[in-house]
Amino acid sequence: MNFDSISIRIFLALTGLVVVLLVGAALFGEVQVRNYQQVALRDQLTETADSLLGDSTEVLANRAPAEPFAQRLRDLGRSNGLRITLIAVDGTVVSDSEVTGPMANHGDRPEVLEAQQFGTGSAERRSSTTGKETFYISRRVEGDGAFLGTIRVASEIAPLRSERSRFHTNLALFGLFALGIGAGASFLISRWISKPLERIEQDASELAAGRLDLRVRSEGPAEVRRLANGLNSMSRELRDRLEGMRRARTEIETILASMQEGVVAVDGRERVVLMNEAAARLLGLSAQLGPGATLWEHLRFPELERGLRAVLGGSSAWHGDAVSPNQDGRTLGLSVARVENSEDADKPMAGAVAILSDVTAIRRLEQVRIDFVANVSHELRTPLAAVMGALETLADPEQEAAIRARFLDIGNRNAARLQAIVSDLLDLSSIEAEGDRMPLEPVRADGPLRTAAGALAGAAESKGVRLELPGPLATPAWVRGNSQRLEQVFTNLLENAIKYTPKGGRVIARVRLTPKEVLVDVEDSGMGIPAASLPRIFERFYRVDRSRSRDMGGTGLGLAIVKHVVRAHGGTVSVKSEEGQGTNFTVALPRIPEVPKNS
Ligand code: ADP
Asked: Which of 500, 536, 561, 576 has most ligand 1 atoms within 8 Å of its beta carbon, as the pocket-test mutant?
């Protein structure tokens, strides 16, 4: 039995109360019955003694015969179950309702002595005559103011006892019955009070086990109903908060998942707290590491290790670049920062968070810029030195006319070269600066090519290179373009083709149309480009043969300009070449479907 349970406690308390009340009532009843019996017996005996006082006086004063009185005593005694004794002043028994023969002197009996002294005496003792427990009442018998003797009435106590034991039996039976009723009632009352509490306790246990959608039953007494309502509003509040937290976590996870940058958060013992997909990808892991994973068991990345250790060791932040452990040659930018435990000021620090970003392109661009500045300086230095040398020679008035003429020519050529480089650089930078914002308008697909070819026809002819142009287009096609820049593109391509094609060769330009694109080929039968150089041909200042290009007046910027202009048009430029066989450049530009009416 569970003595902790409220129903058992109530049941035991009520049943205990019933038992205490019953026992109390029984004890009280016992005392009452005993008193009542005593009073009734004493009254009966006194009454009997008093009724015999007159006649006793007569007998003891010898004014009346003894025998009829003795008979009367016997009759009275038999009919009432009493023993009546008349005792003379000297203690001699004059007459006794039960004993007929001679009897011992009764003068020393306590009730007789008491009656002599006070008029009435009583005693409860074992009778030395009958040998039974007896209750005695004695009355002093007087005649004419003189003490004549004592009349004593006695009754056995045994019948009273048996009467009381019957009463006890009845009392016990009633007590058992009342106890049964009391226990039954206690049980019902305890269930009545505890039931709603037990129900609410069950519901609360389910709530505590996480079933927050459960509604606690609101029934029973007012306090229990208030408790149920309180629990319900608490679970509602809890549900809302959990929902809020879940939403916040989902938002964070969604944001982290959509980030390009990798995020790795670790705790003070370098265990993963959080890792997003991008981090797994950048670190070359097949899947994200879950919370609690030990980072270095899955990953070997000394720079990240160093950064996290530095921050966990006390630095506020750490930044650095490292080659990706993915071994794909990418460069990762690492930024590690401390994560302070804002909730608990006693705990010194919660951990560190590392942001990983792919900085390959940025670093490459930075390198390109550095190289570019170096290249520009290098490209300008040679013609500048030549110009300065020429000027120095020319400054000498004693130089011969022929030498002066030669140095004047050198100075002129190098100044022109400087001008060409600077002008190409300016072009390139303004094309780059314009970028997507280059002003574009509908342009005939073959217009810029024909203009450029027209301008170069003379140069081709004087070099002895045949320049072939396409016939008029069957369907006029249009592109969105900047004619001036496109002319520059085709001028550069045709110029190169003529330049790098020996005398007797040919340059063929073609225009092909597809539903979406206009493709312009510039093909020559020249010296071609070695396969190793093809990927670098569009870089600034890149030349297959530096001195030859310089001799031919090239700046090494022509194809870079072509690439940037075509890109600003949303197009592409590609090259195919075989050394000694010739080269074919193809410019692809997006075609616009409708033909403007007024053009
Ligand atoms: P350059 O001013 O030197 O011509 P470009 O950027 O126009 O500079 O060209 C870069 C290099 O590409 C040239 O130096 C040359 O080596 C090579 N090249 C360009 N076009 C051709 C071609 N049609 N045939 C052979 N080589 C070419």
From this structure: 500
